[in-house]
Amino acid sequence: MVLHGGGNTSLKSIEKNIFGEEEEILYVKGSGWDLESISVSGFAPVKLEHLKKLAKLPALADPEMVNQLVTHQTRFSAPVPSVEAILHAILPYPYVDHTHADAIVSITNAVNGEVRIREIYGDTMVVIPYVMPGFDLARLCAERFAVEAGPNTIGMVLLNHGIFTFGQNAKESYGRMIEQVQRAEDYLKRNNAWDFTVAPVTASHSIGLAHEQAKLRADVAKAAGFPVIIARHADEKSLSFARRTDVSVIAQQGPATPDHVIRTKRLPMLGRDVSGYVESYRAYFQSLEPQAKERKTMLDAAPRVVLDSELGLCAVGKSAQDAGIVADIYEHTMDIILRATALGGYRALPAKDIFDVEYWDLEQAKLRKGGNPPVFTGEVALVTGAASGIGRACVESLLARGAAVVALDLDAKVTTLKSGANFLGLQCDLTSEEQFRQALVRAVEKFGGLDMLVLNAGIFPGGCRIDSLKTEEWQKVMRINLDANFMLMRECHPFLKLAPRGGRVVVIGSKNVPAPGPGAAAYSASKAALNQLARVAALEWGGDNIRINSLHPNAVFDTGLWTPEVLAARAKHYGMSVAEYKTNNVLKTEVSSRDVAELTAEMCGPLFAKTTGAWLPVDGGNDRVI
């Protein structure tokens, strides 16, 4: 019934203030809070009498309305009250619920929507024509409610917006909401407009189509002016909708409710012509901006929803979470469009009404005061050997900087390493080109492309002198430490080349590259060869705006390789305590996985934007390296 901050609830209560005087207080949902998880702290307590006085004013600008709401709260730490607080205040019921239920919106957005709503509800609902949320809507509702409400009234339907129900207690109001939404669903079912058949379609999941998705991401990011996440949804419903012969008509009417425009823009892009979409968006802005009361600053012109016959539905966001919200909203929008179409035709509000919400004063204020996002917001990193040690620490450091992270490891626990929209853990044998390509396709489908690659996976075999080293052991080390990383670099290059801010590769090398030791021939040679490969790539890929640098850690003991028993044995071998062994370097400091990971992340950031082909030790100072 509600999605991502939409909908609203309120209750009215009587409380004593600091002077012992009784006051009526409206507790209304805070702006932007999600009804799925809201708690007491998400409600704003506002003095009811003041809200009723505001409702009687002939006019009230939105910024001043918000000022009045905030300055008449009884708790300074409360969230900003919903812009519909005045509307809730004027309704003469102690409990009020408001949703944007799909069934209701499907009917109000259909041809003859108002007639259908009145047919369904009769005198139980006051019907309000569309008015933009805020003071004007509250005043209109007060006027219409005073005239049209009767003894049977239990709610309101706001055309192209949603439904309100009321009650003497929370249960009554909620029960009425469920009942009235069910009546709308039943109406749709009676008119064969609730369930619909999805045409059977087959989605392609190839590396070639992943390249196309990454190209799309690059074009959208260029239009937006910042990196973006593009999540592909190729389920049957999305693909079938994108392939409809009438998609250019039904999907180009406008959003299901105007507030969706903040997330999805007014129209989805059909196909992959980003420049054409940008041109159309600019024309939309230039035609409607002169009609606004105040001058507006144009938002970025990039699409947020893409419908493509091959890709299906692609949701665009500044982060993976934002892209997920866009996808959720448009999934419901497709249902609403199809149901309204089955009723006789989908009809969204005129572009002017959508523009007014998209460029609302309150949204413009948010735009002007928005803080700086984390440095890697909208970017995608892939980390190998990510289940433990340095790899796991790299995942955490990159996530902390706002990146969407794909973590690969042979260990299945990588799949549950982290949770959240910006993480994808995949079990993968990196010596298998086919497995890696499949993982790469899944990564691109989830996030849209690749900006950063951390080559961390590798093995360190037990000490063995060259004269005792078996060929199969040598080849195993080379296959994992060198050959697999060569393959990864080759397969990732086309995606790194499309990175909006340029591709970045960090190779986790070893102290053994500049200063090898006896008994580690295969390991030292494989790491040295990998780093030489990285230097060649730095020369070859600089023209593609891809930079490649290497870190050489040493004595990082908080990894799976170093059990307490092994650590104790090695310390004893050198005649040291464990503490002395762990800090056996020039600076007498312990090097942790996090130390390596933090520098890895920084190497992908702006501080190293003009550095490529570099080797940097992370070892506390090793006398042999120095």
How would the blueprint of this fold be written?
Elements: E1 8-16, E2 22-29, E3 43-47, H1 48-55, H2 62-71, H3 85-90, E4 95-99, H4 102-108, H5 113-121, E5 125-128, H6 135-148, E6 155-158, E7 162-167, H7 170-190, H8 207-224, E8 229-233, H9 236-242, H10 247-250, H11 261-264, E9 269-270, H12 274-288, E10 305-308, E11 312-317, H13 320-342, H14 351-358, H15 361-369, E12 380-384, H16 389-400, E13 404-409, E14 423-427, H17 433-447, E15 452-455, H18 471-496, E16 503-508, H19 521-541, E17 546-553, H20 564-573, H21 578-582, H22 593-603, E18 615-618
Parallel strand pairs: 5-6, 9-10, 12-13, 12-15, 13-14, 15-16, 16-17, 17-18
Antiparallel strand pairs: 1-2, 1-4, 2-3, 4-7, 6-7, 8-11, 10-11
Helix pairs in contact: 4-13, 8-17, 16-22, 17-18, 18-19
Number of structurally distinct domains? 4
The H-level CATH homologous superfamily of the largest domain, spelled out, is: NAD(P)-binding Rossmann-like Domain
Number of helices in the DSSP assignment: 22
Largest sheet: 7 strands, mixed
Q: Tell the overall outline.
A: elongated
Helix and strand composition category = alpha/beta
CATH class assignment of the largest domain: Alpha Beta
Content of β-strand: 15-25%
* Spatial extent as radius of gyration: 30 Å
Q: What is the CATH third-level topology name of the largest domain?
A: Rossmann fold
